[in-house]
Amino acid sequence: MDKHIRNISFVISILVSILVMSVNGGTHRLSCNFPAIYNFGDSNSDTGGSSAAFWPANDPKGETFFHRPAGRGSDGRLIIDFMAEHFGLPLLSPYLDSLGTNFRHGANFAIGGSTIRRLNESMFLNGVPPFPTEIQVVQFRNFKERSTRLYKQAKRKSERRGLPRPDDFTKSLFTFDTGQNDLAAGFRTMTNDQFVKEIPDIINKLADGISNLYNEGARAFWIHNTGPIGCLAVTLRGIHDPLPGYLDRHGCVKFQNDMAIEFNKQLKKKVMELRKKLPLAAFTYIDMFAAKYKLITDAQKEGFLDKAEICCGYHENNNHVWCGNDAIINGTKIHAGSCKDPSNYISWDGVHYTEAANHWIADYIINGSFSDTKLPLSQACHRLPLQSQVELH
Ligand SMILES: *[C@@H]1O[C@H](CO)[C@@H](O)[C@H](O)[C@H]1NC(C)=O
Ligand SMILES: *[C@@H]1O[C@H](CO)[C@@H](O)[C@H](O)[C@H]1NC(C)=O
Ligand SMILES: *[C@@H]1O[C@H](CO)[C@@H](O)[C@H](O)[C@H]1NC(C)=O
After folding, report:
1. Which domain holds residue 161?
2. pTM for the complete prediction?
3. Where would one find the signal peptide in this protein (predicted)?
4. 106 conformational bin, left if phi > 0, alpha if psi -120 to 50, beta if neither
5. Known catalytic membership, residue 43
6. Catalytic: 352?
7. What pLDDT is recorded for position 129?
């Protein structure tokens, strides 16, 4: 290394150490000014991608907040929406939406039904081709390249409207909420023993996606682990007279939650590895499982009905009429409309959470209650020194 550069990097490393010391010893850190959020995942954070790509969302979705189906699997806002609001940013436009988008403050690459790993056709649910993490990252790269070119070509300010500033990419927050559909596909097509062996490969595919984003300049990562899939209302409603031990002590399907816990254990370990491997990045790992499980187990205390109550949808005797749909069952026409007050429910449609539940969860994860570093969302750009990351465990 050139001597001059070495001196500069020495000075920088001293400055960084001082900053780190003052951060550790200080009472507060500066808030990060994220100009944009780029999100990747499945229906838990899809703000309209699936609706744009496949079938437009139907009523009564969106009724609580948007007063129209807004492409979300909920009556209102999702956790990612509350995160954007927390920074005063507009709600994220889906990358695939062709109308009315604004990408100045980020884009959403999440698509309902998506997995981390590519599935082959025999594993699709209802024939829906999902957008695995790898494809979502390719779409981001395409987005970055094209928006940068358009931004630079623009001769007037008005031509840049709705485009991100090229310099903003590296200052943005990159968020992930995925894995639930990999588990669901595993439960559909494999034995537990077979699936456990697949988990490392799934986690590696997610890590590849993160590394590829890092190579594109992404630096601040906020990674949700996967939720308690064994507590989904639609599953619980179909269980009658379970064998002893089939349910855990809070009445959720034990083997499914155990698989989610194993997945999360390996994901957390991988995030720790990535912290070392990608030293310029800040990683925050969020225990979404614990946050959702806390809501589910404290439901009554927190003013919610039981986890198995579904606001919108008909799921009796193995007949499923999904939220907003009509069907004839046993000669009777069923319209699966919504409940009177969605804010009493945890589950919106049997699989996804209501706005009230999402709001509850978002409050906890935004203030750092479920972050491994205990950093709130507003400080997700700060890299803690490796040592203290280890100690915090
Ligand atoms: C699809 O994946 C399953 C599970 O991994 C495998 O058993 C099957 O052979 C695959 N089918 C094709 C056509 O690749
Ligand atoms: C149809 O109705 C009969 C009589 O009420 C009931 O026993 C049966 O379980 C119903 N079938 C379905 C599929 O709901
Ligand atoms: C985070 O927010 C929740 C819900 O408002 C609150 O109960 C909790 O005490 C807060 N935790 C911290 C660390 O601020």
Report:
1. 34-301+355-391
2. 0.90
3. 1-25
4. left
5. yes
6. yes
7. 63
